[in-house]
Amino acid sequence: MAGRQRHRLLLENAEQLVLVCGRREPYLRRDGANGLALLRAASLVVGLDGCIKAVGQADVIRNEFSEATFERIIDCSGKCVLPGLVDAHTHPVWAGDRVHEFAMKLAGASYMEIHQAGGGIHFTVEHTRKATEDELLATLQQRLGRMLRAGSTLVECKSGYGLDLDTELKMLRVIERARKSIDIGISSTYCGAHAVPKGKTATEATDDIINNHLPKLKELKLSGEIHVNNIDVFCEKGVFDLESTRRILQAGKDIGLQINFHGDELHPMKSAELGAELGARAISHLEEVSDEGIVAMARAKCAAVLLPTTAYMLRLKQPQARKMLEEGVIVALGSDFNPNAYCFSMPMVMHLACVNMKMSMNEALAAATINAAYALGKSDTHGSLEVGKQGDLLIINSSRWEHLIYQFGGHEALINYVIVKGKVIYENERCEAMSSY
């Protein structure tokens, strides 16, 4: 009996409580994803420390905690409880929008044609360099708030629209300030090798990153001023080649950063093979990955962060999600939110993954929870509803969890509560009104 012990939150009588994992799995491959752990008529308890204390059948939890006191109790009858979603790839810090480039793409211009004409990343770099730290923080907080309301409780946030040391550090400081000022988990990524700065060659940019950016980053990490988790490089034809990518990633790894980079997006670059060799935690995009690269990633337990929004908006061929799953790759999902792929919603990302990449709904949910957490090195604390993990979760106003994917664009009226560390961060007043329709 738990006695009169105080707890933060009790969720009672959920129609479905989707654990995702039930045996502390750090990730789910295909077979595991297709057998998601799920309880019916279930309850969950979150303690004052923000961690899950109990998950189980409602009558068992009620008996065990009958004399406990809770700061809040939510009746989840007829509703579903799921882990908070994890967005494993975003570029949310920037100034100046690129809506005009969407019109160019619709008229037939390719991504690299826009980039080589001075648009794309370089356009955003110009505006981001001019923006103040406070201006960037205000827009980042607004964007993260929209992600939170769409169900994301852990988000990877990249720099990369500075390309010079001062602006990259400005972006990383903004991410650090957001981490401390908004109730959403953040995994911070240094992406100074997002493009080759104007006036430099790729080799000169690589040398600058290794000799100047990374030593400064190490200094700021050691002082506690900035917390950075990952290092990213855009390994692409006409950007950073395989050898430059190798040098930067290895230098980042040497200062304690996880390797988590862009690869094999527009051209086959053997990025997957390189990532597997270097012990990368994750590689994103992979529209042009080789068969050998897929096998190498599976063996190395290197997550594939697939971005169906990007392939959709740029009219690229879809990543080979089915082949990756069948070969045993750990498949994760991200929104790739950026000026070129303006999507905040992981429910919409999951829907696109199912329709365009032929993933099952179970596979998509695993990819947006436990596997996305694994891609960020955080699946020990996030991505499933298990005792000891952080109490980040969603309550949706439906008796079947699949509605979160099935209702394309419907999350705004479907997500009832977003909870972080057992605290209700967002309560959707529209949700109850819509439930009678």
TrEMBL record:
EC class (word): hydrolase
SUPFAM superfamilies according to UniProt: Composite domain of metallo-dependent hydrolases, Metallo-dependent hydrolases
Pfam families, sorted: Amidohydro_1
Pathway: Amino-acid degradation; L-histidine degradation into L-glutamate; N-formimidoyl-L-glutamate from L-histidine: step 3/3
GO biological process, alphabetically ordered: L-histidine catabolic process to glutamate and formamide; L-histidine catabolic process to glutamate and formate
GO cellular component: cytoplasm
Signal sequence bounds: none
Coiled coil residues, start to end: none
Residue stretches making up the Amidohydrolase-related domain: 81-424
Alphabetized GO MF terms: imidazolonepropionase activity; metal ion binding
InterPro entries documented for this protein: Amidohydro-rel (IPR006680), HutI (IPR005920), Metal-dep_hydrolase_composite (IPR011059), Metal_Hydrolase (IPR032466)
Catalytic activity, EC: 3.5.2.7
Catalysed conversion reaction: 4-imidazolone-5-propanoate + H2O = N-formimidoyl-L-glutamate
NCBIfam families assigned: hutI
Family from the record: Belongs to the metallo-dependent hydrolases superfamily. HutI family.
Name of this protein: Probable imidazolonepropionase
Source species of the chain: Pheucticus melanocephalus
Chain's gene name: Amdhd1
